[in-house]
């Protein structure tokens, strides 16, 4: 299948006992739930520092205390979310070894590099986050602003390295299989595999969007409740503007990622679009349910998929008929997750167009402050949760679309799972832990948002000179 592989095309892990269907399902559910929870916090950890620095920079530039107060409040939330993300990330690292020993035991030496680099980035982020949080008014404003830049760089780098490891699972490189053993390991080639560029860029932009639209949604609700002061307006417009700026770039990168699949993972693309038969003039199907080797009840755009893949109706698209039924991903789930992600992406893009039109109309008419209608604010409040849904749908496509492989074409999920019994117990334990962690996180963030006034640092006097609302 690949030039780098020799010997068997599929690696099976010898085990005295194979996991039962229940334990396999429990391992999948536990890993999926943990990832779905952690990815939201991780996105906030990448995007919220950018918003905080933007607010602080603008406050320094204009001398407006509104933006400086926003920066202080967002910084405190940033510290809480960093701590929570560290806990959920640690849980995930244990799950990788406990749930999937077949993967880590065989390929740990291949994909260890990005995890090691992510650890370095994590500690750098933690160091500078501590400096940033405790250096308010202890450093000159511009110097304090500079201490936040490494937080953004390290957080983005951390996301890059982790996604590189996941990209390797979609495009395994940097090793050779010889008689079932991994030899000639090249960790850099493994990390910088063909899937790394589209996946990492797509994920980092998604992190900025999720953080931006979620933060804006909080202030959109406040604006809907009549709190139209400068503080809440700035709290809405700074993150929302960043989100709508990133949205069109994300759509372009998403198209790049889809074209990548047409070349490197055609089976996943066929599942995404519900293409069962290889051919040209393939329609683009919106919605539908998989059944009888076709996608039924969907809205078809004639020649749409062929045009998107190769810019011409005659472009040949590989279908699921090229792979055995047992090696096909679950079409309906992957297809609907992709359609929902795309729909939300265009919804967010249209929100940006609406904001741009409102801004242009205000300038043309010589109006005062930009005032958004209530329907726009209501949709903006929805945009935050919608961005999270789009994020989860994207990861569903990435992970579910790779099934039944944990390492594409090399190792199946069943061969990687821990054969020991009792994985269902671990699932229930994890659910209890995450329920408690979710409750504690929401409680602390709500207390931070409502408690007034905002301290300069945890052990210092309160901010003065600006009314806290």
Please provide a written account of the structure:
- By secondary structure, the chain is mostly helical.
- It has helices at 21-62, 65-99, 101-134, 141-170, 187-191, 196-224, 230-264, 266-273, 304-310, 331-365, 374-400, 413-416, 423-450; strands at 176-178, 181-183, 284-286, 289-291, 294-296, 299-301, 405-407, 411-412.
- The protein has a two-stranded antiparallel ribbon with strand order 1-2. Strands 3-6 form a two-stranded antiparallel ribbon.
- Helix 7 crosses helix 10.
Residue share in β-strands:
under 5%
Please tell me how large the radius of gyration is.
24 Å
End-to-end separation in angstroms reads 62 Å
Question: How many E strands?
Answer: 8
The total count of helices amounts to: 13
Point out poorly predicted stretches.
1-16, 453-469
Overall pLDDT confidence: 84
- Percent of residues in helices: 55-70%
Give the topology string: H per helix, E per strand. Answer: HHHHEEHHHHEEEEHHHEEHH
Structural class: mainly alpha
Q: Quick one: biggest sheet?
A: 2 strands, antiparallel
**How would you write the strand order of the largest sheet?**
1-2
**Could you say which overall geometry the principal axes of the C-alpha atoms support?**
globular
């Amino acid at each position: 299948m690949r030039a780098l592989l020799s010997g068997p095309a599929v690696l099976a892990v010898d085990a005295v006992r194979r996991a039962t269907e229940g334990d396999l399902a429990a391992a999948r559910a536990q890993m999926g739930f943990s990832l779905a929870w952690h990815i939201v916090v991780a996105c906030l950890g990448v995007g919220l520092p950018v918003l905080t620095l933007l607010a602080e920079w603008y406050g320094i530039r204009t001398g407006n205390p509104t933006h400086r107060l926003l920066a202080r409040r967002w910084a405190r939330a940033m510290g809480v979310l960093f701590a929570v993300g560290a806990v959920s990330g640690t849980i995930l690292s244990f799950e990788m070894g406990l749930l999937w020993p077949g993967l880590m035991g065989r390929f740990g030496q291949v994909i260890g590099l990005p995890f090691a680099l992510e650890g370095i980035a994590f500690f750098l982020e933690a160091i500078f986050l501590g400096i940033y949080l405790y250096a308010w008014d202890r450093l000159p404003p511009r110097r304090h602003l500079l201490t936040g830049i490494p937080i953004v760089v390290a957080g983005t780098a951390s996301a890059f390295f982790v996604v590189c490891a996941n990209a390797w699972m979609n495009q395994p490189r940097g090793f050779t299989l010889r008689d079932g053993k991994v030899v000639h390991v090249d960790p850099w080639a493994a990390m910088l595999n063909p899937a790394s560029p589209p996946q990492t860029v797509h994920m980092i932009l998604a992190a900025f969007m999720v953080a931006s639209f979620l933060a804006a949604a909080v202030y959109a609700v406040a604006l809907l409740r009549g709190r139209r002061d400068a503080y809440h307006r700035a709290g809405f417009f700074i993150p929302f503007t960043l989100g709508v700026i990133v949205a069109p770039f994300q759509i372009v990168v998403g198209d790049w990622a889809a074209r990548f699949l047409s070349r490197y993972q055609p089976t996943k693309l066929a599942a995404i679009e519900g293409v069962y038969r290889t051919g040209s003039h393939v329609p683009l199907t919106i919605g539908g349910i998989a059944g009888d080797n076709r996608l039924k009840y969907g809205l078809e755009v004639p020649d749409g998929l062929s045009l998107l893949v190769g810019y011409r109706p005659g472009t040949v698209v590989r279908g699921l008929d090229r792979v055995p039924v047992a090696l096909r991903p679950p079409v309906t789930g992957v297809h609907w997750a992709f359609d929902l992600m795309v729909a939300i992406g265009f919804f967010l893009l249209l929100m940006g167009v609406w904001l741009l039109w409102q801004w242009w109309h205000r300038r043309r008419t010589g109006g005062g402050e930009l005032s958004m209608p209530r329907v726009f604010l209501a949709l903006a409040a929805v945009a935050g949760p919608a961005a999270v849904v789009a994020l989860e749908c994207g990861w569903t496509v990435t992970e579910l679309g790779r099934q039944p492989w944990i390492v594409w074409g090399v190792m199946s999920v069943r061969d990687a799972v821990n054969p020991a019994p009792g994985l269902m117990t671990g699932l229930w334990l994890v659910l209890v832990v995450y329920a408690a962690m979710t409750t504690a996180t929401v409680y602390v963030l709500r207390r931070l948002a409502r408690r007034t006034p905002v301290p300069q640092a945890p052990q210092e006097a309160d901010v003065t000179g600006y009314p806290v609302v």
